[in-house]
Design goal:
Blueprint: H1 5-24, H2 30-44, H3 50-62, H4 67-110, H5 114-142, H6 146-161, H7 166-186, H8 201-226
Amino acid sequence: MKKSTWENIKEYLNIYWTMFIIGITTFGGGYAMVAIIERELGEKKKWIEPNELLDYIAIAQITPGIIAVNTATFVGRKMKGLGGAIAATLGVITPSLIIIIIIAAILTNFYDNVYVMHAFAGIRVVVCALIINATIKFFKSTVVDWLTFIVFICVFVVAAFTNIETVFIVLAIIAISVILSVCQRKKKIPGLKVEYPEKNDGDSKADTSEISSVSSNNKNEEEDEKC
C-alpha cells in the first residue's frame, strides 16, 4: 500500500532528528561517532546491521568528505532513497554548524580561560575513549581468523609508522582481497571460508536413475517405430 505524503514526511523527519541527536551528542566526529551510530541506528532503531555499518565506514574512508557525514548519508539512502540521504546529511551536520557559529563568536574571548582549557582537555580524553571502544567492537566482529589478523597487523603497522595515505591502504586491501578470492576458487586457502552448495549422494543417485529411465524409454520408442 502506497504511503501518504504525511507519512513520508514523518519518516524524513525521523531520520533527520535521529541524525541530529547523534550529531549533537558526539564529540570528536569521525571514529568517535561510530560507537554512537552503532548504538542508535543498530541496537535501538534496527536500521542497519553491524556488518553494514562496517561496509559504510570502509566506503566512507575512500570517498571525499567527512567519515561521519558519509556514513549518515549511506544510512539515509538505505532508509528512504535520495530524500533520506539528504535528511540524514542535514541532520548530522546541523548541530556542528550551530555549535561552530556560537563558538566562533565567543571562543576568542575565553580561549585562554583556565576552565575552558580544562574542559577541552576532558573532551579530548572522552574522544580517545570513544575511539578505542569503537575499535574494540570492530576488532571482535572483523578479525575472525589468522588471515584477517595478519591483514589487521599489516595495516596497523603501515598506518601507524608510515606516511602513506589511508585511501591508498584501503584500495590496496581491496585489491588483495579480490586476488585472494580469485585464488580461493582455484585452491582452498585456510582462513577463507566460502560455502558452496553440496549435492547429496541420494540426489545424485536419483538423478542417475531418472536419466537411465528416460534413455530406456527413448530406446523402446525407437524399436516400436522400426517394427
